[in-house]
């Protein structure tokens, strides 16, 4: 039971810590440096770099969610009053749903905009519509990351104040 709880807490802390590292450290640094050196094209490059970082993090995120749900499922079956565990399971499922939407739905939209830009690069078109769309999608991704971070931190808080059983 202790090993299972330790695995659960480790997966939770790694998931939340990864979100903090990406959102508070990596994204601002990448955008600041590339925009400072390359201007508007640097912003597009920064978006591509950070997008790839998010894509790779998604696998880690989905794995963490799977571990969390597996541990909580076992604990749910082994505890005499599983109500609190049920709430945790619902929270993790909601966080995973948000991650899947951001990882699959929004990432596809960003890729489609980049494909449109690439196919129209030879023509002299107004790129402001693409920039506005990408900015919206990046802001939406950031908002969903913050939503998940809040949910993850609520689970960390819950674990800090009470026992699972």
Briefly characterize the structure.
This protein has 165 residues and is mostly helical. The chain has 3 helices and no strands.
Describe it for me?
Helix 2 packs antiparallel against helix 3. The protein has one domain (2-161). The chain has 165 residues and is an all-alpha fold. The protein has 3 helices and no strands.
Shape, per Cα inertia axes? elongated
Question: How many angstroms separate the termini?
Answer: 10 Å
Q: Identify the quaternary structure here.
A: single chain
Strand content: under 5%
Helix/strand structural class: mainly alpha
**Using only CA atoms, what is the Rg?**
19 Å
Question: What count of helical segments does DSSP give?
Answer: 3
Q: Which parts are unreliable, with pLDDT below 50 for 5 consecutive residues or more? A: none
Keywords:
3 helices, mainly alpha, single chain, 165 residues
How is the topology of this model organized?
Elements: H1 2-78, H2 83-119, H3 128-161
């Amino acid at each position: 039971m202790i090993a299972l709880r330790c695995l659960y807490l480790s997966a939770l802390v790694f998931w939340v810590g990864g979100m903090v590292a990406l959102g508070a450290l990596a994204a601002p640094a990448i955008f600041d440096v590339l925009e400072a050196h390359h201007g508007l094209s640097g912003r597009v490059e920064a978006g591509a770099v950070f997008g790839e970082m998010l894509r790779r993090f998604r696998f880690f995120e989905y794995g963490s969610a799977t571990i969390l749900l597996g541990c909580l499922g076992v604990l749910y079956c082994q505890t005499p009053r599983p109500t609190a565990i049920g709430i945790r399971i619902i929270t993790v499922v909601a966080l995973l749903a948000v991650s899947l939407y951001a990882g699959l739905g929004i990432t596809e939209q960003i890729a489609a905009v980049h494909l449109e830009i690439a196919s129209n690069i030879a023509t002299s078109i107004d790129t402001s519509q693409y920039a506005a769309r990408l900015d919206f999608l990046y802001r939406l991704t950031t908002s969903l990351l913050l939503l998940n971070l809040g949910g993850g931190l609520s689970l960390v808080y819950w674990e800090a104040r009470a026992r699972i059983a």
